[in-house]
Design goal:
Blueprint lengths: L1 H12 L7 E9 L10 E4 L5 E3 L5 E7 L2 E8 L6 E7 L7 E4 L8 H5 L16 E3 L2 H8 L5 H5 L4 E5 L7 E5 L7 E5 L2 E4 L7 H4 L5 E8 L3 H4 L6 E7 L6 E9 L3 E11 L3 E12 L14 E14 L4 E17 L1 H4 L11 E20 L2 E19 L7 E20 L2 E16 L10 E16 L3 E12 L4 E12 L4 E12 L6 H5 L16 E16 L3 E15 L2 E6 L2 E6 L2 E16 L2 E16 L2 E4 L6 E11 L3 E10 L13 E12 L2 E8 L33 E9 L1
Parallel strand pairs: 1-7, 11-14
Antiparallel strand pairs: 1-4, 2-3, 2-5, 5-6, 8-13, 9-10, 11-12, 13-14, 15-16, 15-39, 16-17, 17-18, 18-19, 19-20, 20-21, 21-22, 22-23, 23-24, 24-25, 25-26, 26-27, 27-28, 28-29, 29-32, 30-31, 32-33, 33-34, 33-35, 35-36, 36-37, 37-38, 38-39
């Protein structure tokens, strides 16, 4: 601690003379003249950098007077350096970047679709978050759950009332139907699924992409509800950030991100320690936030072998200990008939990601990708005093390999490839007589063709064939179309299919701690399959330099066959296909209004998700029909950023048929910039709305929170604060 205080004091004492010049411009593609999202402008030789928003605008503050070099970069484009004298005598309104290969934005903007087009020209509906990532990291630097929860049509569903595990629901469907990727690699799923969004930090991410609806054509099984692709930062000009965060309920985080690019090699590195003390908001003797200690170490190396060839090697190393339950047990009190309930997760994850890209000719590219994921987890649960401890433990080893070839002619792009995916889980023999091992191997082939029909219509079509060993062949077509009525008004329509092989790793089994859950009966259980589509209309307009209007109205529908349900099987539980189907339909409305330094965002989602089982119709549990989310942000470049947010959730149906009340939550964030320092404070749930203000979480049969369904915040009012230092 003494060393840390000395280091902190030393950093605070460093003074650098910065004049308050601000550089403001719009970055565009030199060929298409379209604004570039996610482009980076940085003051050469410093860590001062900014990222362009969806309109391509970059605001770079804190630039000293005199002649300075501003570097502009974006993956798939040639780096540009401009020598500029400050203060400016006249504004530089537009900066053009030239593609370093024929495709427009490569994988930077829409990596998840494989279309190699800009977001404005991609027929598939893709939502991209960029500048929101920095704000979310201020609110919670330990995980992306907070960022996802503020997105329209996305619901972060807490699965444990005491240990705060969670999954992500898209458009009302269960979290197991959402496929989460990192840089296009399927690293999260199976045994690790309930912890993935709690372990992915936002600090080394440059953007997040959503593709909603059945999308298994793109990356194989699992994407019934949609895809979330988190994309890490690439090496740029020198950047090092130290991020310190604490909260009044016991959080303390130390995070560091650094990046450097040389002529032939570049690297990024994220290192962090996240800790949280156990917190009991309602004083019922059980944790509402678990005791937590987590370490993350994420290195990435990029080798620029030639003008045509790049090689990147990345890894993730995570360890975590998370425990909740009776607070007396966390204070090392012995288990007794009055104090027995406990839940403890111990996790170790190692992943590797390798990507080799070689440009064969000016319009042909070969790419190889490979990843390994080694995930060890021990889940301890003490449901009753008489039963004692139950431990479910095992190792998950998964791998993904892909070869792809792309060819481009003008703006038409054809991509075809092969991939091989393995996922093996081995249960550690402890207390179960019959081990619930799972072993699945899938060979896939895919093709994706994106082309224009004149200047007003673009089409993206794809077909995947997945052969699951010892099962069957799944054929998965998809098609999307983009209609450009004017420069401001567009329409997208598309549809696809998805599937997910049966597995015990679902929310219902997590709640039980896998105790008494039988292995999947492969002879009688079918894969879950879906089909669906969406359509939207979008309008974007700028009025002068200060006013931005962005409106999007989207409608969606998904039909899910053979959904898995957990049923009683004697004294045990077993997953089986339901006699019927699940249906989700609804609409999403997005509105964004920018005026000068203010931005207003409003998002509304209507979701009608129902189960049609054995002739009976019922609502999908924990799915609000109405959800309203919004933000008001004020940003004074180089000085202040102030934000207010709110969320409304309508009543939700619990598995018992009980209807919960509607509720509002509110939050606020303030950031103050001074030289290389950013001071921040953030308040969540200002009016302390908690589920336990409405009902107790202690339920039968054991008078513990084990089977409580979480439909509202449990931790209540939270204030976190800290400091970011650009070194």
């Amino acid at each position: 601690m003494t060393r840390f205080i000395l280091l902190f004091t030393l950093l605070l004492s460093v003074e650098q003379a910065y004049s308050q010049n601000i550089f403001n411009t719009i970055v565009k593609d030199s060929q298409s003249k379209e604004p570039l999202i996610g482009a980076i402008a940085g003051l050469k030789g410093t860590g001062n950098a900014a990222v362009s928003d969806e309109g391509g605008e970059i605001i770079l503050p804190n630039i000293p007077s005199g002649r300075q070099i501003i570097q502009f970069s974006n993956m798939g484009y040639k780096m540009l350096e401009l020598e500029i004298d400050f203060p400016l005598t006249q504004p530089i309104e537009v900066v053009f970047l030239s593609p370093n290969r024929e495709n427009e934005l490569g994988e930077v903007i829409v990596q998840g679709t494989r279309s190699n087009r800009s977001i404005a020209q991609t027929p598939t509906r893709v939502e991209v978050l960029t500048e929101e990532i920095d704000e979310a990291a201020t609110m919670d630097p330990s995980k992306i759950a907070h960022l996802l929860s503020h997105s329209t049509g996305i619901q972060v569903q807490q699965t444990s009332a005491t240990s705060n595990t969670a999954n992500v629901r898209i458009q009302g469907l269960d979290g197991r139907y959402t496929q989460i990727l990192k840089d296009g690699f399927p690293l999260y799923g199976g045994f690790s699924g309930s912890l993935c969004i709690m372990q992915i930090p936002p600090l080394d991410l440059r953007q997040i992409e959503y593709i909603k609806g059945g999308a298994s054509t793109l990356y194989g099984g699992g994407a019934i509800a949609g895809i979330i692709n988190v994309i890490s930062k690439e090496p740029t000009s020198e950047e090092t950030i130290l991020h310190l965060n604490g909260s009044q309920i016991g959080a303390f985080d130390v995070n560091m991100f650094t990046s450097k690019k040389y002529e032939k090699i570049g690297f990024t590195l994220l290192a962090q320690r996240n800790a949280h003390k156990a917190f009991d908001a309602d004083k019922d003797g059980f944790t509402d936030m678990p005791e937590l200690e987590k370490f993350n170490f994420n290195p990435k190396l990029v080798f620029y072998l030639s003008d045509r060839t790049n090689l990147s090697i990345a890894g993730t190393f995570t360890t975590e200990k998370r425990q909740g339950g009776d607070t007396k047990l966390l204070e090392n009190e012995a288990i007794s008939s009055s104090h027995f309930y406990k839940e403890k997760n111990e996790v170790s994850r190692i992943t590797t990601q390798t990507k080799y890209s070689h440009k064969l000719t000016e319009n042909q590219t070969f790419e190889f990708k490979n990843s390994f994921n080694i995930f060890d987890r021990s889940l301890l649960n003490v449901p009753t005093f008489n039963e004692g401890e139950y431990i479910f433990q095992g190792n998950q080893l998964s791998s993904f390999s892909e070869l792809s070839y792309s060819i481009q002619k003008n703006k038409d792009v054809l991509i075809t490839g092969l991939n091989f995916y393995t996922d093996e889980f081995k249960e550690t023999p402890l207390q179960s007589i019959l081990l619930r091992n799972e072993d699945r191997k899938t060979m896939g082939a895919f093709t994706n063709f994106t082309f224009d029909l004149g200047e007003k219509v673009s089409v993206e079509s794809g077909l995947r064939g997945d052969y699951v060993f010892d099962d069957k062949l799944y054929l998965l077509p998809r098609v999307s179309a983009l209609f450009k009525w004017t420069n401001r008004l567009t329409t997208r329509i598309g549809g696809g299919m998805g599937y997910r092989n049966a597995s015990i790793f679902n929310q219902e089994a997590e709640i039980l701690g896998y105790k008494g859950v039988l292995a999947i009966n492969r002879n009688d259980t079918k894969a879950e399959k879906s089909s669906g589509g969406n359509a939207d209309i979008s309008y974007k307009m700028r009025l002068g330099e200060k006013i931005l209007i962005n409106f999007n109205q989207m409608f969606f529908y998904t039909h899910l066959n053979n959904p898995l349900v957990l049923q009683r099987s004697g004294s045990n539980y077993e997953f089986a296909n339901a006699d019927g189907y699940t249906e989700s339909m609804g609409a999403e409305t997005f509105f964004k209004f920018g005026f000068s330094d203010f931005v207003l965002f409003v998002g509304y989602t209507y979701t009608d998700a129902t189960n049609h089982f054995s002739g009976t119709i019922s609502n999908v549990s924990l799915t609000p029909k109405h959800s309203l989310k919004g933000d008001l942000l004020y940003a004074l470049p180089g000085k202040w950023r102030i934000g207010l947010d709110y969320e409304l959730k309508s009543g939700q149906t619990l598995s018992t048929g009980t209807q919960t009340p509607s509720f509002w939550t509110y939050g606020a964030v303030v950031e103050r910039y001074y030289k290389n320092f950013t001071f921040f404070g953030n308040v969540e749930n200002i009016f302390d709305y908690r589920q336990t203000n409405y009902e107790s979480l202690l339920l039968a049969p054991n008078n513990t929170p084990q089977f409580a369904e979480v439909w509202a915040p449990l931790d209540g009012f939270v204030f976190n604060y800290g400091l970011k230092i650009k070194l």
